[in-house]
């Protein structure tokens, strides 16, 4: 299958993602500003894709390019869509996320969040974004750029392809030839794929996927990396859950401060933090926090939720990282997640 991409300021919550971006774009065969524009070699065709239970999930159109990569776009009935980049033999760090920059000619220039769904797939959740969708239909060149490299795709045939894709999604695939079910992608983040998180952490009710769904974020499909972290993305927001065993006798407030200290170390400019109040649940202590890193012309905002379980003494950090435009949405997502964890704890 394929994957999606975005750019912008480097992630300060996830550490060495700038290197991951370079790996991804290097695998795409990028050559900096002089990279040749890859040309489509096949035919675009919109096809419905079924979920694992056989129900309609989304519609997908994709094409292989002269650089050997695959560019795909998937759309669901509500108008949310994702961009997908297939990177054969990419050896990408599965489950990690990265910020990239998406540009279509002089029409659209924006940041987004890319998730490495597997070693060969980058997914970029876009959500509802008519400006970008229309630009992809009418534009000449799509550029996906990282800190020092970029890859470019010629948008030949996309006007017809994305018109057909929109109709396919709105009709829920009726009248279109179905494609085989695909594991690892979904229109607007809502397709099939392996939902990460596995069993819930000790003392924390529900898996990450269940918590996301209960927090009314069910269209987001999390991915679990080998190091145990779980990542997801939607719109300008990149989310991640990280777990570690806490030293005995540590409070959630002290552990939260330590985590914020580590994030501040990665901020090259001014850093502000705002820890919230600690609450005690039946099975855990929880605390919200927010932080902001301002460097150059970039502003990176973090909405955090810290959880210290009473069983297993596990410290869990939920992070929603975004730019200035996504601040309110990141806060709402974190707060919904907190309310969901509290409600699940009340049910036992």
> How do the strands of the widest beta sheet line up side by side?
1-10-9-6-7-8-5-4-3-2
**SSE-based structural type:** alpha+beta
Instruction: State which percent range the strand residues make up.
Output: 35-45%
- The beta-strand count equals 17
Task: List the total number of helices.
Answer: 6
Poorly predicted ranges: 1-23, 29-34, 179-205
Main beta-sheet strand count, sense and barrel state: 10 strands, mixed
Describe the global form.
globular
What do these coordinates show?
The protein has 348 residues and is α+β, with helices and mostly antiparallel strands. Helices cover 22% and strands 35% of the residues. It is built from six helices and 17 strands. Helix 2 crosses helix 3. The chain is globular. The chain starts with 16 loop residues before the first helix and ends with a helix. 51% of the residues are buried.
Summarize the structure.
This protein is α+β, with helices and mostly antiparallel strands.
Topology record:
Layout: H1 17-27, E1 37-38, E2 47-50, E3 56-64, E4 70-75, E5 81-86, E6 97-104, E7 108-118, E8 121-127, H2 130-138, E9 141-145, E10 150-154, H3 158-170, H4 208-214, E11 223-224, E12 230-234, E13 237-245, H5 252-265, E14 270-280, E15 284-295, E16 298-309, E17 314-322, H6 327-347
Parallel strand pairs: 1-10
Antiparallel strand pairs: 2-3, 3-4, 4-5, 5-8, 6-7, 6-9, 7-8, 9-10, 11-12, 12-13, 13-17, 14-15, 15-16, 16-17
Helix pairs in contact: 2-3
């Amino acid at each position: 299958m394929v994957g999606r991409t975005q750019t912008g300021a480097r992630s300060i919550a996830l550490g060495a993602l700038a290197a991951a971006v370079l790996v991804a774009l290097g695998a795409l065969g990028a050559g900096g500003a002089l990279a040749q524009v890859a040309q489509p070699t096949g035919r675009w065709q919109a096809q419905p894709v079924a979920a694992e239970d056989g129900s309609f999930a989304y519609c997908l159109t994709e094409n292989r390019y002269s650089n050997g990569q695959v560019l795909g776009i998937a759309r669901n009935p509500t108008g949310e869509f994702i961009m997908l980049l297939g990177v054969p033999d990419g050896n990408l760090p599965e489950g990690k996320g990265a910020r990239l920059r998406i540009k279509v000619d002089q029409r659209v220039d924006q940041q987004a969040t890319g998730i490495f769904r597997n070693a060969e797939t980058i997914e970029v959740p876009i959500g509802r974004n008519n400006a970008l969708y229309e630009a992809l239909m009418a534009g000449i060149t799509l550029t996906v750029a990282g800190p020092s490299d970029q890859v470019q795709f010629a948008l030949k045939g996309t006007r017809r392809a994305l018109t057909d894709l929109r109709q396919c999604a709105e009709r829920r695939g009726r009248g279109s030839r179905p494609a085989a079910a695909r594991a690892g992608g979904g229109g607007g983040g809502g397709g099939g794929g392996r939902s990460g998180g596995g069993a819930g952490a000790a003392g924390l009710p529900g898996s990450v996927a269940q918590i996301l769904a209960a927090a009314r974020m069910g269209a987001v499909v999390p991915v679990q990396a080998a190091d145990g972290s779980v990542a997801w993305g939607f719109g300008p927001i990149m989310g991640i859950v990280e777990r570690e065993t806490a030293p005995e006798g540590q409070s959630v407030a002290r552990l939260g401060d330590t985590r914020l200290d580590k994030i501040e170390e990665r901020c090259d400019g001014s850093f502000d933090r705002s820890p919230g109040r600690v609450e005690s649940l039946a099975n855990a202590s929880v605390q919200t926090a927010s932080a902001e890193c301002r460097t150059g012309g970039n502003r990176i905002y973090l909405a955090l939720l810290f959880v210290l379980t009473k069983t297993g003494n596990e410290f869990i950090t939920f992070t929603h990282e975004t730019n200035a435009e996504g601040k309110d949405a990141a806060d709402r997502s974190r707060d919904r997640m907190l309310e969901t964890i509290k409600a699940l704890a009340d049910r036992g």
